[in-house]
Amino acid sequence: MKELVQQEKIALCGIIQEQHPERCRLFAQWHQFDWPILHDPINQIPTTAVPMVVAIDEHGIVRGMPRRPDWVINEFIGRTYPDPKRSNGPEKPNLKQLRKAAATQPTAANQRALAEAATIWGSVDTIDETIAAWEHALRLDPGNAALHFGRGVAMRMRFESRRRRDGDFQAAVDSWGRALEINPNQYIYRRRIEQYGPRLMKPYSFYDWVARARKDIVARGEKPVKLPVEPDGAELAGRSRDFGADSATVSQPDQQGRILRDKQRLVRLSTVTVPAKARPGRTVRLHLEFVPDGSVHWNNEASPAQVWLNQPDGWLLEKRLFELKQPPEPESSEPRRMELEAKLPKNAKDTTITGYALYYICENAGGSCMFLRRDFKIPIRVARPKSRQKER
Amino acid sequence: MKLITILACLLPMSSSAAQETAYRPAVGQPHPHFVLPNIENGKAVSLDSFRGRKFLLFHFASW
Fold it and tell me: Cα separations (Å) of B3 from A217, A267, A388, A391?
């Protein structure tokens, strides 16, 4: 096939629906793909399965979905196809015009056109406007799965940017979950949730190839493509058939509650549950993130921060006591993240998992250092079983 | 069946239909038009960029 491309008898083009295009750039570098790969983050071409190969002739007409190279080499390439005189499609969308159309005629279609174009072609500087366009389209067309999915993509983009707001990640997961509820056969929606979800729901590990790719690329004497957002946690976790629970003997670090509370919320906490609605008998993945509020920083010269979670009756937590990694430098202010999985009982109802974190922080001004406890609650919504309709 | 259930069944679906039309390229038909950014440089690449050349379009993922 490479020779045919070099002889210009055929061209290759890829389309990916992933949230992070740079990861695919690294993948392409690793495999030495030298053909264009296009980014369709919102699944605008509503792909329902990957991988898929489509053979398109010189006039833009679909000629086959080849599963083997034989047909491509022996039939497709050598054949001359009739020219149906197809006119050209639209050019790259003009965001200015789309904004004007959405403002003067705020129909669902105009809002959607703006939202899609702004997500694909816009920048993080206008991400708030992009999200507003998705939400406006959804108010007008709330049953549209593609709109929910697109909103989720934009929320996750904002979560990963300097413009992030509290709740963006959970909002993304909620949106993807709603999209999948409306269209349960949409493979791309399902995979997006699984990317951040529990191991029992995973078909495979999503990005554990990244370490190997970097090693191989460096061995070739090249510099690997930089990833602005590193895969982590769930994205690296492999599939699991079993759920491993904590030892029953682990004990709480502050059972009697004697440590002073962080009443001023000097460390902010956000939590996300994936999927947004957990299923009885299944697992849910919890994401926690602790961030100093700007007036304090982590004190890394003391013991690492710890997190304790209480196991609700009938539930199984993968672990109850966690230690958050800290860097070698004496002070830092980075977000500290952890993930864990919880298995629901078969009769599970909406539940709150409680716990607390213990951490050493120091004031930026004044330099006072403290050891504090932050109590928290993680609400878990449980999907209601769909009742069977009575047959008439 | 209760009256309220009958009425619910008669209500129109949401304006866009609950499920979008899936991508099913039909042999002999024009491929749906697309204009998307190249992951390498952000430049627009469209279906029409390939006019005059046969090409294979791969839908894939790095995961």
Answer: 67, 55, 18, 15
What three-state secondary structure class fits A338? strand
Closest CA to A197 of A49, A339, A33: A339
- Which of B62, B15, B22, B34 shows the shortest CA–CA distance to A26? B62
Any B CB within 8 A of A185 CB: yes
Of the pLDDT bands very low, low, confident and very high (cuts 50, 70, 90), residue B16 is: very low
| Over residues B13-34, mean pLDDT | 76
pLDDT band at A376; cut points 50, 70, 90? very high
Candidates A34, A18, A160; CA nearest to B63 is A18
Neighbours of A116 (CB within 10 A): 22
Contact B34/A82 with Cβ under 8 angstroms? no
Rg of chain B, C-alpha, whole Å: 20
**Does B14 contact chain A (CB < 8 Å)?**
yes
Residue with tokens 């406006």: A136
Crossing angle of the two packed helices A108-121 and A95-104, in degrees rounded to 10: 150
Residue in the structure block whose two tokens are 């702004």: A118
Return the sign of the alpha-carbon dihedral for residues B20, B23, B28, B32: positive
* Cβ pair A76:B54 closer than 8 A: yes
What percentage of residues in chain A have a pLDDT greater than 90? 87
pLDDT tens for A53-84 read 999 999 999 999 998 889 999 999 999 999 99
* Minimal CA separation from A364 to chain B, in Å: 40
Contact B47 A60 (CB under 8 A): yes
Shortest CA gap B1–chain A (Å): 7
Distance to chain A for B5, nearest Cα, Å: 11
Query: Model-level pTM?
Result: 0.90
